[in-house]
Automatic annotation (TrEMBL):
Region of interest (Disordered), ranges: 1-29
Cofactor: Fe(2+)
Protein's UniProt name: TauD/TfdA family dioxygenase
Group of enzyme by EC: oxidoreductase
Presence of keyword Iron: yes
InterPro entries per record: AlphaKG_dependent_hydroxylases, TauD-like_sf, TauD/TfdA-like
SUPFAM superfamilies according to UniProt: Clavaminate synthase-like
Superkingdom of source: Bacteria
Molecular function (Gene Ontology), one example: dioxygenase activity
UniProtKB keywords: Antibiotic biosynthesis, Dioxygenase, Iron, Oxidoreductase
Enzyme Commission number(s): 1.14.11.-
Residues in TauD/TfdA-like domain copies: 22-316
Amino acid sequence: MSSLSPVSQLDVELRPGSPPLLRAEDAGDAPGWAADHRDALRGVVAEHGSVVVRGLGLREPAEVAAVFQRLTTALMTEREAFASRRSYSEGVYSSSTWPSNQQMCMHHELSYTLEFPGLMLFACLSTPETGGATALADSPTVLDSLPTALVERFEREGWLLTRNYNDDIGMSFAEAFGTGDRGAVEDYCRANAIEFAWQPDGSLRTRQRRSAVVNHPVTGQRCWFNQIAFLNEWTIEPEVREYLVDVYGADALPFNTCYGNGDPISEDVVLLLNEVYAANTVREPWRPGDLMIVDNIRTAHSREPFEGPREVLVAMGDAVRLADCAPSVEVAAG
């Protein structure tokens, strides 16, 4: 079915199980089209949380970067990444490096930072043989679907992210923080409410406590906004988890999440979170040239397993401060 949104004045297709879809014509000037339709597209995202634009015929990274720049107030440089990316140009990256045969679970990009993207932009240059969709879930709906007692605990305590940066697995601290200067990393951590400790082998361990529920800075909607399930040990493939625990120890996994008071999150809670996400997931298989715009606070995203080469470019824009989202947990930085 088609629905002509009074906000956007664009003919947007709304279909059960899929994100809103807008069909555009490839006029040979995708950046110009994006500039002309910027406000309307952002209106669709404000109304629905996301939109897939099909038909622009995006083909080259430089063209994608120009489109991204015209749709945001400013692109962000990624900090505190959990997986490596290729940088195409300033603020334009590849998808996170993640095993293609493993699910990248629902999450909100950089929800563990004090400043995160309000808008996520994706562009598909090539599709895999099978799978690989960037699926979406509405965070207010997810929040409403979770047990009240569990939500109340996370609202009281927040969630705790522990990370171990080393040169063997995952991100090194130099990659994650954009510098190998220990003093600069320490300054960043102090300014961003991150506890840190250098280990005898030269690796870095950090902990940061964040709110699990925030209010959308524009609409005021309560949103389940975090990476509790995605970065938890129980979401890691069992054989991979066993190997990591055996080699590095249970306290030295590349990343893990806990309740805000430090208590471990049980496997059944992580399973529940992922089941609720799955029950509220929508997806649209990628086609070459597709553009997708996502409200990062209202809408979680994932990446499904795939086979064959896949090239999806990503950008983060319209930075939002956690302090402007009525966090339930106080964070003291500085």
